[in-house]
Specification:
The complex is a heterodimer.
Chain A (H helix, E strand, L loop, with lengths): L11 H23 L2 H26 L7 H15 E2 L4 E2 L2 H23 L4 H21 L20 E2 L2 E2 L4 E3 L2 E3 L1 H24 L2 H11 L1 H6 L4 H27 L9 H14 L4 H30 L6 H19 L8 H11 L1
Antiparallel strand pairs in A: 1-2, 3-4, 5-6
Chain B lengths: L1 H31 L6 H20 L5 H28 L8 H22 L4 E2 L8 E4 L2 E4 H23 L1 H11 L1 H6 L4 H27 L1 E2 L3 H16 L4 H25 L9 H15 L14
Antiparallel strand pairs in B: 1-4, 2-3
Helix pairs in contact in B: 1-5, 1-8, 1-9, 1-10, 2-3, 2-4, 2-8, 2-9, 3-8, 5-6, 5-8, 6-8, 9-10, 9-11, 10-11
Classes of the chains: A mainly alpha, B mainly alpha.
InterPro entries (chain B): ABC_transp_permease (IPR001851), BCAA_transport_permease (IPR052157)
Subcellular location (chain B): Cell membrane
Protein name (chain B): Leucine/isoleucine/valine transporter subunit membrane component of ABC superfamily
């Protein structure tokens, strides 16, 4: 229950903080570019995952519905974009038509899956969503015969980048005397999207709907008794999460220029869920932290482990790729062991935990 | 008709394996309400250990059946220790943490185990040395091997043993009591920690047996094999009503049969629009349909939202 009264606007220090964050966000792609465009791409993925994690946060963090198939909606968005803006079918629609379409279709899938299954208790819902994710992936993998819809495991290539008039997101261009590369443009687009979803998350949190979600999360029976239409409200959370997943998928597709079913494995769903839980469920800064950390950690390990082994043993003892995942898994276990509520939980949740520990 | 019988036989074999793995999920879930995502990986480790032991002993001149038995035994022991260690190190400290926390831990452990296995056994497929001379029997147009007979028989024996353990022994009674109400059970003098550890140990032992079966049935093993197997087995457990032993057994068998029949007939049913590579879909579609009508699984008790 959140009875704190919020100030109606940010105070003076908040403005300074916001300004600082803005400056850092602005500088990141240019600083990253010093190390090569690959680092800008990593930053892009970090922001994309922030977007995805905040989308999932609505479902898992606010409404408390355990969704293990979130990547299915991401896949739907990605494939809608890929099919409608690539030579595969010879259709080249502009992005502002496809992105909403992808979001709408993902939303539809969310409702289709959610309406019969949302009455299930937590873990049953988890396994159903997991199954749904696998079904979507298997279909994407096999729908190349007899009619070639998804081009099977090879995936779809040559997807159009996002383009506004003559301004293409794929090429380097000079803006205000500064040379801005393709990945850097996507970076700013992604930051804009991320800010949008952060605002949506913040506004939802204390809204009527948001409080209804929290009530359902804490005690569904009591929420129902208070006159909340639990079915519709849960469905709303599900559909909203799904449509954000769809948008993220579309942007992913445009940014990569290539999609294949491999990008939408269960492991991906699990990673996004891990970002939400590891950061601090239902707490926006925590979720952002979780997403950035879990994107950066494997990359940092990729660049760190190989030289480290060389330095320690003089040769490669263990395959660096498996060692990287090993450390990733261990990190998940250890963080959960020592910070069970996540790295940066909301103050309210921390209080609850402290109480239940007594 | 002969395809029907054939698919039923194959489905039953596969189902027996699913059932054994599903029991591991369901026992843990029934007692502490945790989806032990790492269980599939325990099964995989079981297969790998059995493989290593069998290969090491293959040239020693011992009779093949003895080698197999030793492989099975070692793998069961290793998995029991592994299951116990998992519970002790990863899950016990989190017993009072928020519900999703142990789930993430389980996922983390599963990643760790997979990669440890990859480091030890490599990333390629491993071929199981065939220890038994395969005999093929024919009944009514369908054929089955002695390996299949052995799998189904062994699975049946192990399950009977488990039922005996849970319903006729002291530790079984303690388990059932803890599943009903851990708090009251502990007031009656049940050592909860021991019961939970036992659930993990027994579940892992069953998983090891299942792992050896998969290995000798497909004659192949891979460090990622535990994932899909675990997923299917968990589906089977949910299908039967998670937390319910008989449900897990029935769910496993049912899932195996549905999958085999589905793979055999999907081409005919859809006019060759969908082929047998959609086999993996059946498990999940059946699951979704069953849960729509029976939200707590086929044999699960109807529980309210609050205990």
């Amino acid at each position: 229950m959140n009875t704190r009264i919020r100030k109606s606007g940010p105070g003076r220090q908040h403005w300074w903080a916001l300004l600082l964050i803005g400056a850092v966000l602005l500088a990141v792609p240019f600083v990253a570019a010093l190390g090569g465009q690959a680092w800008v791409r990593i930053a892009n993925f970090a922001i994309l995952y922030v977007f995805l994690a905040l989308g999932l946060n609505i479902v898992v963090g606010y409404a408390g519905l355990l969704d293990l198939g979130y990547v299915a909606f991401y896949a739907v968005g990605a494939y809608v974009y890929a099919l409608l803006a690539s030579p595969h079918f010879g259709i080249h629609l502009p992005f502002w038509v496809i992105l909403p379409l992808g979001a709408a279709l993902a939303c539809l899938f969310g409702v289709l899956l959610g309406s019969p299954t949302l009455k299930l208790r937590g873990d049953y819902l988890a396994i159903v969503t997991l199954g749904f994710g696998e079904i979507i992936r298997i279909f994407l993998n096999n729908l190349n015969a007899p009619i070639n819809v998804t081009n099977g495991a090879q995936g779809i290539t040559l997807i159009d980048p996002i383009r506004i008039g003559d301004f293409s997101f794929a090429q380097t261009s000079i803006i205000l005397g500064v040379s801005v590369s393709g990945p850097q443009k996507y970076y700013f687009l992604l930051v804009a999207l991320a800010i949008m979803i952060i605002i949506i998350n913040v506004r939802l949190q204390d809204s009527r709907v948001g409080r209804a979600w929290q009530a359902i999360r804490e005690d569904e029976v009591a929420a129902k008794a208070c006159g909340i239409n639990t079915r519709n409200i849960k469905l709303l959370a599900f559909a909203m999460g799904a449509s954000f997943g769809g948008v993220a998928g579309g942007v992913f597709s445009a940014m990569q220029g290539f999609v294949s079913p491999e990008s939408f494995s269960l492991m991906e769903s699990i990673t996004i869920l891990a970002m939400v839980v590891l950061g601090g469920m239902g707490h926006i800064p925590g979720v952002i932290l979780g997403a950035v950390l879990l994107t950066a950690l494997p990359e940092a390990l990729r660049y760190g482990i190989q030289p480290l082994q060389q330095a320690l043993f003089g040769r490669m003892i263990v395959d660096p790729e498996s060692l990287r995942m090993l450390v990733f898994g261990l990190a998940l276990v250890l963080v959960m062991r020592f910070r069970p509520a996540g790295l940066w939980p909301s103050s309210q949740r921390r209080r609850e935990l402290a109480e239940s520990a007594d | 008709m002969d395809t029907l019988l054939q698919q039923l036989i194959n489905g039953l074999t596969l189902g027996a394996v699913y059932a054994l793995v599903a029991l591991g999920y369901t026992m843990v879930y029934g007692i502490i309400g945790l989806i032990n995502f790492a269980h599939g990986e325990v099964v995989m480790i079981g297969t790998m250990v059995a493989f290593t032991v069998i290969v090491a002993l293959a040239g020693s001149g011992m009779p093949p059946l003895v080698v197999l038995a030793i492989g099975l035994l070692v793998s069961v022991l290793v998995c029991m220790v592994l299951g116990w260690a998992l519970e002790r190190v990863a899950y016990r400290p989190l017993r009072h943490a928020p519900r999703l926390t142990p789930l993430i831990t389980a996922i983390g452990m599963s990643i760790v185990l997979q990669n440890v296995a990859m480091i030890i056994w490599g990333r390629n497929y491993i071929t199981f040395p065939p220890m038994i001379d395969k005999k093929i029997y024919e009944v009514g147009g369908a054929s089955f091997t002695n390996v299949q007979v052995a799998i189904v028989t062994l699975a049946a024996l192990v399950m009977l043993g488990l039922i005996y353990l849970v319903h006729r022994t002291r530790i079984g009674m303690a388990m059932r009591a803890t599943a009903q109400n851990p708090h009251v059970a502990s007031l009656m003098g049940v050592d909860i920690n021991r019961v939970i550890a036992m659930a993990f140990i027994i579940g892992s032992a069953l998983g090891a047996v299942a792992g050896c079966m998969v290995g000798s049935y497909y004659e192949i093993a891979h460090y990622q094999m535990g994932f899909m197997l675990g997923l299917k087995a968990f589906t089977a457990a949910v299908l039967g009503g998670i937390g319910n032993l008989a449900g897990a057994m029935a769910g496993g068998l049912l899932l195996g049969v549905i999958e085999a029949l589905g793979a055999g007939y999907i081409g005919d049913l859809t006019g060759d629009f969908l082929g047998s590579h959609y086999q993996d879909i059946f498990a999940f579609i059946v699951l979704i349909i069953v849960l729509m009508f029976r939200p707590s699984g086929l044999f699960g008790e109807r529980t309210g939202d609050r205990a």
